[in-house]
Each structure stands twice: as C-alpha cells, then as structure tokens.
Amino acid sequence: MTSRTLIKNLAALPDGPVSVAGWVETVRDQKKVQFIILRDESGAVQLVNPAVRELDPEGVSVGAAEALVLTEQISALSHGTFVTVTGELKHDERVKLGGLEVKIAALDVVTEALETPIAADSSLDKRMDWRFLDLRHPKQHLIFRIQTTFEHALRQYWIDNGFIEIHTPKLMASASESRAELFEVGYFDTTAYLAQSPQFFKQMAQPAGFGKVFEIGPAFRADPSFTSRHATEFTSIDAEISWVDSHEDVMRMHEELLVAAFTAVKERHGAEIAELFGIELEVPTTPFPRIPLAEAKQIVADHGYVVPRADADMDPEGERRISQYVRETYGHDFVFLTDYASSIRPFYHMRNADDPGLTNSYDLVYNGVEISTGAQREHRIDVLVAQATEKGLEPEELEFYLDFFRYGVPPHGGFGMGLARVLMLMLDEHSIRETTYLFRGPTRLLP
Q1: For residue range 277-295, what is the model confidence (pLDDT) as tens digits?
Q2: What residues are paired with 107 via a beta bridge?
Q3: Distance of alpha carbon 398 from alpha carbon 405, whole angstroms
Q4: Distance between CA 73 and CA 76 in Å, rounded?
Q5: 287 alpha carbon, distance to own chain's centre
Q6: How many angstroms separate the CA atoms of 86 and 84, rounded?
Q7: What is the band of 53 on the pLDDT scale with cuts at 50, 70, 90?
Q8: H or E stretch at 103
Q9: Are 119 and 6 in contact (CB under 8 A)?
Q10: Vertex 195, ends 413 and 394: CA angle to 5°?
Q11: Are 334 and 365 in contact (CB under 8 A)?
C-alpha cells in the first residue's frame, strides 16, 4: 500500500513532513504563490508552493531549476488530476480550510484528467451519466458514509436483540406477490423471475425456528415508473419476527430500529449534515403516531383533499397531507397508517378478526412519502389457501410456499423498507437517484 496520510488525520499530526494523495479540486495560480485544494476520500487540504516563474540569467541557484519545473507542473494541473504530494505540514489558524496547509516539496502526477464533463448546474441525468465523477462531491460522498452508518446501526440493533441475518435467493421459480412487476430471465431450459422481495423466504425462517431474521439486499420491480421514488432495482431492508400478537408488535420493533439508526447517524454525521445539507437531523421519538387508514383519509378530506382513487388506498398527495397534519398535530415526521383494506393487500396479510375487510397491516410514511409496508402474516394454511385463491392465484404454483405452513409455524409478521427512500427523505433530497449508488430505472442500465 502507498504510504500516505489521510487528509482527515492531518490535524492530529505535528508540523513536519507528510505525504498526501488525492484529486486536484482547484488551482489558484498567482504570480508569486500557487495554491492547490487537494481532496481525498476523507476531506480536503490546502497545498501551497512559492512560485518560481523564471531563472536568474546571472546564475541558477541551488534548487531553482527544480522549483521552476514544479511551478510549471502545478500551472498545468487540470481539475480531477490525481497526484501524490510530499511536503511540510504547518498548522496555521489563518488558513480557512482546516487551519493547516502543506508546503509542497515534490508533486507526482499519477493520472491526468480530461476536462470534466459535468458541472454543479448539470442536470440530474447528466450527472448520472458520469456518476463516478459526481460522487467525488463532498455532499454525494457524505450520503454513502451516512448509508454505511445507518446500515451498521440497523444490524447492531438486530444483533443486540437476537436476530439472525439471512441472505435469500434473488432467482425464483414463481412470483412472490404477483406477476405484474416481475422480470423474467432465462434459466437453462425454463424461466426464472427476479425476486420482488425476500417475503417468502424470510417467512420460511419462521417454521425453520429462526424466530427473528433480517436481510439487507437487492430487490427488483419491473415497474415502468419514472417518479423520483421508484427504481427497477433497489436495496430492501427486511425483518420478520415470530410470536407476534398483531401488527403492533412489528410496528414497535420497526420504530425502535429506526430510532437506533437515526441516533447513530446524528451522533456520527450530524454536524456534516448541517453543513452540507443545511438540515438539523432529528431523532424521532417513540411511539410513532398511529392512524387507521380510513381515519387518515377522513382527516385529509376534512382539510380539503379527497383522495381520487377507485380503490381503498391512499395516494401520494394524501400521504403528503396526512404527514403535514401529523407534523402540526404531533410534531412528528413519521406516521404509521394502519388497517389497510384486504382488497389492496397481498394474500398473505392476516385479516382483522373483527372485520375481514381489513388487514393487520400498515404503511410507514416519513416526511410525506411511504417508505415501508409491514403486517402480521396469515399462518393458518386453510385461510392462506382461501385468500390466495380469492386473489386469483393458483395454489398449485405456491406449493413450495404453502408447505411452510403445514408443519407447524408460529404467528409472525414483518416489514420491507426501501433504503434509498429513507436516505432521500432524511437528507431532504428530491430523488432516490441521489441516494442510490448506481440507479436503475426503465431507461437506465449504465453506468
């Protein structure tokens, strides 16, 4: 490995020789002095070089020729060129960038960069075309450090609470929910489908005796949507737990999980989020507000908006409106909308014991956007078969799944949640393209 000091670690070092490496962000090429802003994966630092523009015709002093070469080399640097630098670190409170700078002794160009094809005002699609350059920006870089902290905190909560991590297959022999949004792929002499979710397989862990499981992994939806919150491939956060009495047990676990993750992000990145995103990240309090869907639709109707849907579901504008109501009424950014109609829920959601037209399920809405669906699952085989048939599914095609419930299974429930959506809303971004490392949509398969 190349011997170098990460820029973020320079502040802890005394004045003296150092070696750094990174991308040239800017060059200020003044007559008597040159400044370079150098950025690596951890931060940025100012480099300085006393400029030598010409040699003394009466005699070249020791080192003058080398100094002239270095000056000319710096003058020729382009944005994005990768260099390694050795020099003298000096702490100087007058320097705005971190209160330190490095006086250049030697500079080596590792790879030169062409003229950058994107700028700060480039369109989102243009930036996505050059995503590897777009990600160099400190704001974009921070998103994925936040993602790392967020996922680690989720896992820590789960591990501390006795969950088992599973990795489910993404190639399936049949649909997990419906064929409408499935990608078909050739699989030797038959057809396979890319998994919409790990739903069936995380449920399989319940009769297997795992008790509590989680997975963070890819999921696929053949959905030709071009909205700011849809993707054809996304990272799904899933959990499933045994021995639930209702979906309330799932909601309680879900909100505790998010509080743990938001706490970790705020503690580690709160100051940077405030600086780069202009947001004071808030850790939500528990319990999150809970509103039955029918009541939520009535609330938004009373405030002047009638959801214009033929089915019983909420629409995006309704989600925004109920979130605004919850924020004004409860001072909360999250709300569980509960008790969805069975007509708009999958066959494996348990029906309400007192009203079979409703399910023991919920959507979690955060800052006006749905980020998750959760439910208590139906674990009684006869009821499950009847509900699948009612939904127009062929039980014969679900035999491998239905077998899970023929050999003893505890009452259970869980949720699936979109990672990029949570990050988008957390950071007040306007598209999951910003919070997805490499976005995939109906018209994007590159880079």
Answers
A1: 999 999 999 999 999 999 9
A2: 85
A3: 12
A4: 5
A5: 24
A6: 7
A7: confident
A8: strand 100-111
A9: no
A10: 75
A11: yes
